[in-house]
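Preliminary data (for renewal application), phosphoric acid mono(formamide)ester complex.
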Amino acid sequence: MSKRDLISIMDYTKEEYLRIMELAAEFEKNPNQDLLKGKVVATLFFEPSTRTRLSFETAINRLGGKVIGFSDSNNSSVSKGETLYDTIKIVSNYADLIIIRHPLEGSARYAAEISSVPVINAGDGANQHPSQTLLDMYSIKKTQGTLDNLNIFMVGDLKYGRTVHSLLMAISQFENPIFNFIAPEELQIPKEYKIYLKEKGIRFFEHPEFTDIISEADIVYMTRVQKERFSDPIEYENVKNVFILKNKMLEKTKPNMRILHPLPRINEISRDVDQNKKAYYFQQAHNGIFAREAIIAHTLGLD
Ligand code: CP
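Predicted structure:
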């Protein structure tokens, strides 16, 4: 059997998304299992991370596996000039699975081509973050009971926010979604995603600011303005405070609406929202452990 990598969210079928949802629910009920006994997983993080790395490592530990790797490539031989090619060649001889985050778009796909063991993309530049998408979908399914017929608002940095790109493509596989994109013009959803939605006949609307239409949302997916992706710091300064969600803005929203955010948050969700029952981002991050246990089990054919 050829190895199963998870590089783009489109590497999985709709049936596989649903299988991951099912498995994640099982792991949530019983997180500690010995599926990875005797296995070693390498986490190679060339970019900073709190949730993705630590929830993957928690998942590996809860499944009885061992973790090797680095959270800062300055502590690896990359700092001496070793190439990504050589790093992956070496590590794929040490581990049964590689989980990689890298600033360059396409780097995870490149790693998968070199590696003899499966590779999971933990974020490649502004491109994709598929394990985040699967935990987002798990959070949506848990709170809405379905992945069909949802009106999803995506807010903030829709240009560089890789989690938005992956989520949009995944939800597009389900019945009758509507997307509302709220972003300043310079951070709007890239053209290729709009073309993708048009080709699939999916409705979407763009807004330059928050409007009362938020009352129609099932999910409000907030994002951070991705400072590290801007080449011009002045451009970042101009947009960094444009969208801040405040508690009083939620008064007319649907009772079952939930606010998601991949985190980290800077200032785009005011702290007064945290006490609102519609704020779901901390539970969402917790769901990451179960979704990632499911992804690892599926990737290694242990499900
Ligand atoms: N959501 C997410 O990718 O968070 P980290 O950057 O902390 O991993």
